[in-house]
Please model this.
Amino acid sequence: MVTCLHHYIGNDKRHKSSLGSQTGLMSVSASDSVDDAGIRRRLRRQAASITVAVAPFGIVFGASAATAGLRLFEAVGYSVFVFAGSAQFAAVEILGDGGSAASAAIAGLLLNVRSLAFGVIMAPALTGAFWQRALMSQLMIDEATAVGVAAVEKRHRRYGYLVGGLGVFVVWNLTTVLGFVVFSNAGDLIVDLGLDVAGPAAFLALLWPRLADRRQLATAAAGAAIAVALVPFTPAGVPILASMLGVGAAGLVATSSVNEDSSESESAA
Amino acid sequence: MSDALIVLVVLAAGTYVLKAAGPLALGNRRLPVRLQSLVDLLPAALLASLAIVSTVGDGPAVTLDARLVGLVFAGVALWRRAPFVIVIVVASAATAAVRVFN
Model:
């Protein structure tokens, strides 16, 4: 299981690089000269690893939903209809801290802007009738995209995406119920077992692979600093929003200056 | 409707639009480079601020308590390349231990 979980982290990195360049990820999986059944078997194995890694996260989500005062059908509603781990966490965390509905929804949506990019990457592999594409899109999460882009051919990308997405969907919902039911009647138990730090630790674990990159590290540090500085002065949820808006604005300025630099050097050459 | 239910409806609808926009509308077109690099950076700021705010935030106050010890242990576990599950267990156990000894 340990290697399985390392696999998950590895996939996360691979999939991040795929945002940058399509060719980079092609070279990662260029050794796929195995037969069709073998490729599909490997994709199923990757999907299973990711599904296992997601399970404790689902339990923690169920437990935090219970702690934040949600009802069971609401918690399951988040896992079925929102179905985006970090956004669910963010929204429930903000609600639990007494934040407004607007700040919870906006934080969750900002966190999901990345699924727009996933959709663009996966679109060529997710062809079919409108209703089929509409249905498949609900599985557009980090894990499904990670398994999908690990394959080369479109049909294998589609297969990996669907197997990974469906596996996580089932386990995520089961563990949401488990976490909610087991821990909702024992709020003290969450504190006694230190599970209130499981959420922050999970965020740090999701963030970790990004920190190897300098720009990502700088972005994370700036975001954290802005957020902590604003905690005493603003309502719950605002520090997180402000850190994204601040860093986003700085990022736009930085990338536009980079673009100008590159266009200048191009014209010079 | 409770706040949780309102957020559920808005977040589910908005998230679905973001998820489905590519497959349903954009087809093979790509995001502009500037937007793409921003989309790649924003989660770092958000994940970092979520991690730190839920660690030191205590209503409107900043409190350094057993949770921070747990987060530091999580960082050490990640640095030692521990898998996801172990990171969570180590962080929780460290926090629980500090609370027992206080």
Observations:
- Chain A is about 80% helix and 0% strand.
